[in-house]
Amino acid sequence: MHHPSALDLEKTFRSHAPGYWADLGVSPEDWNSATWQLKNRITSLKQLEEHLALTPDERNGVLLSGTKLAMAITPHFFNLIDRENPDCPIRRQIIPRVEETLTSPYEMADPCGEDAHMPVPGLVHRYPDRVLFLVTDRCASYCRYCTRSRVVSGVGEQELDTDFEAAFRYLEQHEEVRDVLLSGGDPLLFSDGKLEKILERLRRIPHLEFLRIGSRVPIFLPQRITPQLCAMLKKFHPLFMSVHVNHPRELTFEVKEALGRLADAGIPLGNQSVLLRGVNDDLAVMKTLVHKLLMCRVRPYYLYQLDLIQGSSHLEVPVQEGIRLIEGLRGHTTGYAIPQYVIDAPGGGGKVPVNPDYVLQRTPERTLIRNFEGRTFEYPEPSSVEASVLDY
Ligand code: SF4
Question: Can you give the pTM of this predicted structure?
Fold first, then answer.
């Protein structure tokens, strides 16, 4: 008889509602309302301790980290936490730990060098033909390793002061920009009306071919992905969305439904994971994650090496481990399931792909390659074939 392992359980799309909130008698109507979820987020030590016995490192983390990045956890996401397990992969992502107060000499407040590339407050123009538009500093919940924690959540020293009019004017004048990524913070925290106005304004700029939204709302707050929101977004195609899932448990029944509504609205979905120690630095977990993503109609897009963000060393995974994970996927499972592993070059060099080495030797005559099983093959270069024919 097959006994389901812990990972088998992670592969199923479960509903965790109303979980910890069952005793409080929350109505299904409230539970399914994004407004209720946001209003009832866990933001204080007292609320957290009502549900969980914290470890000393977590307790001190909550007490000490509040001036850097606020804590906020939606009831929906909080329910994914394993109460018994202090090393729970959901806990590590969302509950502050004392290690956040430690900084190493390599770490930076702005690891991707975004601030240096802002021609207008809130608009990052780092690549030739595309821009990053930071429309808000708020998220449904806060990831402890957030690369933009210097501005996100509004408690840090720096403030995001997006100048929308100046940004629209900049985009109108810069015809080389063909792609706008709305991010922040999380654009899907805006009301339908507010988001629609921004998208309408962007769509009036003829050279903008392609729009994208980066959001973790479908994961933190699937209740926000209403049919009305999807119907509105549908008017602005081509519109893609990048979501952010790190562990298979985050793909719950409700999240799958929410992602399905977005996909039905014709929005191509990609996932950006961050490689995190104790969360997804394990081949079996990563495989389960990418398989579940495909079942949710989401293409695993990027696997990010953790940016050198201050106070994140407890979540760092060596690059060699990341390469090993990709190697364990490539050839062993569906090509669509394999994300591109990237390092966002510290200081602002942009994303650089990092891959296992499959090319063993390259000479003008041949390329020596190995496959996923380690067998080697030789591919003769076309010019050398031609040369040998001529010799003949
Ligand atoms: S959802 Fe994105 S922007 Fe918001 S805290 Fe998480 S990583 Fe940062």
Answer: 0.95
Q: What is residue 143's three-state secondary structure? A: coil
Pairing of strands 340-345, 350-353: antiparallel
Report CA Rg, the chain.
23
Is residue 112 part of the annotated active site? The answer reads no
In the predicted structure, residue 392 carries a pLDDT above the cut 70 = no
**pLDDT tens-digit readout, 245-300:** 999 999 999 999 999 999 999 999 999 999 999 999 999 999 999 999 999 999 99
Distance from the CA of 165 to the center of ligand 1, in angstroms? 25
Give the largest Cα separation in the chain, rounded.
86
Q: Verify that 196 and 266 share a domain, yes or no.
A: yes
Range of the domain at 102: 1-356
Cis amide linkage into residue 380, ω under 30° from 0: no
- 184-209 pLDDT, tens per residue? 999 999 999 999 999 999 999 999 99
Q: Mark whether 123 and 265 lie in a shared domain.
A: yes
* Structure token digits, residue 40: 């009832």
Reduced to 3 states (helix: H, G, I; strand: E, B; else coil), residue 41 is coil
My answer on whether 246 and 209 are in the same domain is yes
Ligand 1 in reach of 212 Cβ (< 6 A): no
Residue 41 confidence (pLDDT): 98
Cα dihedral: 376, 381, 386, 392 (round 10): -30
Please give the backbone phi and psi of residue 78, each rounded to the nearest 5 degrees, phi first.
Answer: -60, -35
- Ligand 1 and 285: CB distance under 6 A: no
The reply to whether 370 and 244 lie within a common domain is no
Backbone angles phi, psi at 364, to 5 degrees: -60, -25
pLDDT at residue 34, as a whole number: 98
pLDDT in tens, 323-371: 999 999 999 999 999 999 999 999 888 999 999 999 999 999 999 999 9
Distance from the CA of 156 to the center of ligand 1, in angstroms? 14
Closest CA to 341 of 316, 322, 317: 322
- 298 with 320, same domain: the answer is yes
Same domain, 212 and 276: yes
Pairing of strands 210-214, 239-243: parallel
What are the CA-CA distances from residue 347 to residues 112, 115, 128, 195 (Å)? 5, 10, 17, 31
What DSSP designation does 307 have? P
